[in-house]
């Protein structure tokens, strides 16, 4: 392969070559972050495709999730269990800056794609390894999805209402936070490489991502024995900060955390006596469980007499932090999401276009971009293998033997 850098577009990561050997969410989301900011990402997936293509909603038999989480990437379909497929993957990685993989520890080694072998051929390679429990430790071989690792990391115990079993957030929050940690680790390792010339392994565990959200409770347990529990919609030790009902059956979140904001809320409610009530006279007093429940009941009685939109408008005018609980339909109607390019129309060869979540974060001088939607399985096999010097006849033979797939 020609080592000359030919980046697809501008971006702070333009010029970096990334190979992705990942499935489902955390790994593909990590590589998508890198791709959004200009990295040249080649995704190697099995001939039947990444399982993420079967997840989420489909429209006209098109995976809408794959259109976005696989965007800005090339797709190469290879059977890595075959010697020829493994050899081709090795050649791609030999010319890469970053490899992102999220297989169970040991799988890449069995495929002949372990870090020791890869780094001999490519000493500057940064290998990002995402797994449930990390590459070492007694639980390293356990299979682990984000949900499993939320339970293990203490997060699931904290999620939901106190009078009900632990709930789950209806989103892959741990997977996406892991993707951010992994992308940050990759960029840090690349930055360090500019001085040392050497690559390294970035070991990212889903359970550690989940556990990192428990930061405030770790020293508290060691010093006081405090075991936190589910608190529902409330912010522990801080009130009022909760969901409150509205007259039409909706919900609004009000966060009057400081004394000044609480005073503005009380003035809006026209209940000045609350400021003189010892239970609510300070942040610490309002944060006591009994006082919190009493204050929430008073506020709920007031909010339930007003509809969500007018209540939200009045709270904003009084400079009390608030928001209605948005549905995806509300988001599509809100001008702020459009103004910040968080709902982006991306051309699609079969559907005309799909609307996708915009690029995060926003960089003022070298912003990220969405260059194309997620490609079909193996859509770029011929192009990418040709860059390795594989002839068209050889590619056709690989496809015929089901070593490779081409859309």
UniProtKB/TrEMBL annotation:
Taxonomy, superkingdom: Bacteria
Database matches in InterPro entries:
CoA-transferase_III_domain (IPR050483), CoA-Trfase_fam_III (IPR003673), CoA-Trfase_III_dom3_sf (IPR044855), CoA-Trfase_III_dom_1_sf (IPR023606)
Instruction: State the protein's name.
Output: CoA transferase
List keywords of the entry alphabetically: Transferase
Q: Does the keyword Transferase apply?
A: yes
Coiled-coil spans are none
Q: What Gene Ontology terms describe what this protein does at the molecular function level?
A: CoA-transferase activity
